[in-house]
Description:
Layout: E1 2-6, H1 10-22, E2 26-30, H2 33-40, E3 47-50, H3 59-68, E4 75-79, H4 84-92, E5 97-100, H5 105-122, E6 130-133, E7 136-139, E8 144-147, E9 153-154, H6 157-168, H7 176-184, H8 193-206, E10 216-219, E11 223-226, H9 241-258
Parallel strand pairs: 1-2, 1-3, 3-4, 4-5
Antiparallel strand pairs: 6-7, 7-8, 8-9, 10-11
Amino acid sequence: MRVVVVDPDSANGRFLRFVLTDAGHDAVITHNAAGAFTNIIGIETDAVLMEADLPDLNGFDLCKELRGYRYNGPLMFLTHNIDTRDKIKALNYGADDYLVKPFDPLELLARLDTIARRFRQADYQGLGTVLKVKQAELSIGELTYRVHGREPELLTPTEMRMLECLMRNAQITISRDTLIERTWGFNFEGDTNRVDQYIRRLRKKIEVDPHCPEFLHTVRGMGYVFRAPDTRVPTLEMPTLTDFKVAEASEESRKLRYG
């Protein structure tokens, strides 16, 4: 997972980088709210670990701002503040957990994995369980995409949002601006090239040949469209009883005419 750590203490940042990297995560360390916005908004982020006491913005307000900018992933406070009122405030402002320093690194990793697993299982279930477009199937609850006869592909939440938008509007060209709105929200301020980057990532996952896509097609100057290929096998049309009668009548007419 890509985990963003927001902590003004450089030593704490180095410690958390070691713990997270050793567990197989990609750790991004920043020391203030400005750095948090830069590294989270508009960038796929799987989890945020943050201190409440920041130099440029109160951590609780940062949490509220991140939720307002549609960061919907796991967010955990790691802080020295032991006041129960601070814990309640953090949870009311959108945090998913609150861990008091010092803590056991194994407990941190266990809590982080539990929250992330809960998000993966629950993400988008309210919008419907499965989308089907011909042989393509998007399982929203499981974050998986599958095509008949192939192994399912696990998607990230951001990839899921983008592919869901395209599949719900199959056969319709969707502009980059619309994909940005549906994937990252109205307040996205990044480059529209990010859409192209995610389309390339999706093609690597769902296409047999990403350079010759079957499903995700580019409409030059307009955007992208999800269009599943027609897999129906052509059938040989069998003659009907009427066809035989017409043929017999034609043969009988020919005999009468020419003797």
